[in-house]
């Protein structure tokens, strides 16, 4: 009976020791592992009692390696950025000029005109840009060059081709610049061309005589039926704004104006002036008075004589 009690005590003691070992040993192992991963600083003393600090060599090597890697990455990034910037600069330099023949702004040695902004630039000598074909992008893009590599400009002696009819601003009607010595490459104008559109109240401008009359406050403003032909400006029948022919059409700011794509800068001698020269030395009276001259037109095989009012 006594031996049984002793045996039980021994078993109880062994169980307690086992529990203690199981609890303490893993905790100690974890602490040791954490200590090994932490940078350790060991203080020692020299023979003269001067303290020294030593850092674990493996951590120092790791730190130096990290610094080297960072420096290499920084250097690589800097090089890539420099190369990218140089490439952008090269592209910008290449795009700063462009051959005009590769665009829709130059053909057969003539600058193509699409909008009023371009018209107003004629004679100013400003450069022609790739975006000039549109009013929204006028003055943007690459500078255009001709076949010889020279910069294209809106010169006063340049050659121009109107690519379409261009509405003119009523408040400030465009006119040829003073001293213009260039040319417009338009088609020959005939009497079949529209001169006035009553529905839109628009007068079409084909020549410089019309422009000059519009912009001259002292000029006789009456629109004549042959005004679209430069040499016959001021010749023909009076044009009316209504079918009842109650209101004569005049070159005033009350109407809309569109510059025809066939506009010409040329101002040949007018037939009205030729007629005046022929009758100037004659004794005139009535309808043959010097300020009223005739213009004969053939209509259906018959000669119809029109009276021109207001010629000097």
Relevant terms:
single chain; elongated; alpha/beta
Explain this structure to me?
This protein is elongated. It folds into two domains: 89 residues, no CATH class; 144 residues, no CATH class. The strands form five sheets. Strands 4-5-7-9 form a four-stranded mixed beta sheet. Strand 11, helix 4 and strand 12 form a beta-alpha-beta unit. The protein has 312 residues and is an alpha/beta fold. The protein is built from five helices and 14 strands.
List the helices and strands and how they pair.
Elements: H1 2-37, E1 41-45, E2 51-55, H2 57-95, E3 97-99, E4 106-107, E5 110-113, H3 116-121, E6 143-145, E7 159-162, E8 166-168, E9 183-184, E10 196-197, E11 202-207, H4 208-215, E12 256-264, H5 271-279, E13 292-299, E14 302-309
Parallel strand pairs: 3-6, 5-7, 7-9, 11-12
Antiparallel strand pairs: 1-2, 4-5, 8-12, 10-11, 13-14
Instruction: Tell me the domain tally.
Output: 2
Distinct helical segment count: 5
In the predicted model, the low-confidence regions spanning at least 5 consecutive residues are 27-47, 50-57, 89-94, 289-294
Shape by Cα distribution: elongated
Based on DSSP secondary structure assignment, what is the total number of beta strands? 14
**SSE string, helix = H, strand = E?**
HEEHEEEHEEEEEEHEHEE
Mean pLDDT equals: 78
Q: Portion of residues in helices?
A: 25-40%
Structural class: alpha/beta
Major β-sheet annotation: 4 strands, mixed
Q: Please give the oligomerization state of what you see.
A: single chain
Whole-number radius of gyration? 48 Å
State the separation between the terminal residues, measured CA to CA: 159 Å
User: Strand fraction band?
Assistant: 15-25%
């Amino acid at each position: 009976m006594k031996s049984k009690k002793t045996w039980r005590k021994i078993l109880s003691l062994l169980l307690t020791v086992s529990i203690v070992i199981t609890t303490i040993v893993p905790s100690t192992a974890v602490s040791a592992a954490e200590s090994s991963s932490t940078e350790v600083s060991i203080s020692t003393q020299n023979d003269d009692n001067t303290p020294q600090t030593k850092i674990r060599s493996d951590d120092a090597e790791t730190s130096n390696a990290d610094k080297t890697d960072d420096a290499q990455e920084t250097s690589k990034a800097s090089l890539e950025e420099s190369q990218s910037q140089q490439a952008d600069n090269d592209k910008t330099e290449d795009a700063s000029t462009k051959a005009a023949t590769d665009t829709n702004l130059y053909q057969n040695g003539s600058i193509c005109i699409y909008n009023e902004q371009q018209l107003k630039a004629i004679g100013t000598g400003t450069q022609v840009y790739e975006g000039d074909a549109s009013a929204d992008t006028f003055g943007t893009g690459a500078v255009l060059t001709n076949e010889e590599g020279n910069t294209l400009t809106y010169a006063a002696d340049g050659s121009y081709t109107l690519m379409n009819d261009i509405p003119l601003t009523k408040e400030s009607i465009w006119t040829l610049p003073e001293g213009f010595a260039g040319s417009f490459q338009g088609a020959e104008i005939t009497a079949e061309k529209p001169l006035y559109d009553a529905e839109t109240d628009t007068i079409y401008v084909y020549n410089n005589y019309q422009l000059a009359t519009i912009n001259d406050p002292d000029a006789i403003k009456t629109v004549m039926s042959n005004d679209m032909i430069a040499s016959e400006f001021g010749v023909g029948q009076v044009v009316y704004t209504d079918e009842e022919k109650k209101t004569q059409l005049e070159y005033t700011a009350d109407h809309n104006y569109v510059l025809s794509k066939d506009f010409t800068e040329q101002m040949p001698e007018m037939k009205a002036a030729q007629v005046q020269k022929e009758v100037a030395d004659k004794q005139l009276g009535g309808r043959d008075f010097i300020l009223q001259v005739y213009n004969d037109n053939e209509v259906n095989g018959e000669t119809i004589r029109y009276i021109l009012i207001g010629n000097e």
